[in-house]
Design brief:
Blueprint (H helix, E strand, L loop, with lengths): L6 H9 L5 E6 L3 E6 L4 E5 L11 H17 L6 H9 L4 H10 L2 H16 L3 H24 L8 E4 L3 H4 L7
Parallel strand pairs: 1-4
Antiparallel strand pairs: 1-2, 2-3
Helix pairs in contact: 2-3, 2-4, 2-5, 3-5, 5-6
């Protein structure tokens, strides 16, 4: 026989060597999972675009949303937004056509530009990463609030976005 489990469940067991603990995965999507003696608790992981706030797909979506504002004249053009505009040959039609058919992985590719420009000091890119960190903090606190015991379990933050938001997370 076999038991089907989520990738978050397997990651949580793996990162804690089969012991109880919690994991927050911040990759293309976002999910928090805690495994304790009595139960498995999950926060997030509901999919893009209706969830996964703070993940790479969400970062890409937010960047494209602000790119369209910039193209309309409703927002300032930061180096990141100017780069993205050039990527789409400066044509709003190309941006919207791409965005209408892009999946989570394609939006997540835009996050690479967010990381690159945040490292260069782009204020908009940095703000996106700070907002991502706030979403991840909310997952942490929601997992803690769901915990019925006072047992303090170890946490792990993993995923491709994690290194880029680590410095923006509140330490506790």
């Amino acid at each position: 026989s076999y038991l089907v489990q989520s990738d978050a469940y397997v990651a949580c067991l793996g990162v804690h060597a089969g012991n109880f603990g919690s994991v927050i995965i911040v990759g293309t999507g976002v999910v928090g999972l805690k495994i304790n003696k009595k139960e498995k608790l999950q926060v997030g992981g509901w999919g893009f675009p209706h969830g996964d706030e703070g993940g790479a797909a969400w970062l890409g979506l937010e960047a494209i949303r602000m790119l369209l504002y910039f193209c309309d004249g409703r927002g300032e053009g930061t180096p990141l937004l100017k780069h993205l505009k050039q990527k789409f040959q400066g044509r709003v039609e190309k941006i919207t056509q791409w965005a209408c058919y892009a999946n989570a992985s394609q939006f997540a590719e835009i996050a690479r530009d967010v990381f690159k420009y945040a490292n260069k000091g782009d204020l908009f890119a940095i703000q996106l990463l700070k907002t991502s960190a706030k979403h991840i903090e909310k997952i942490f606190f929601a997992l803690e609030a769901k915990e019925k015991s006072n047992e303090k379990l170890p946490y792990a933050l993993v995923g491709g976005v994690a290194p880029f938001i680590l410095s923006y997370l509140k330490s506790s």
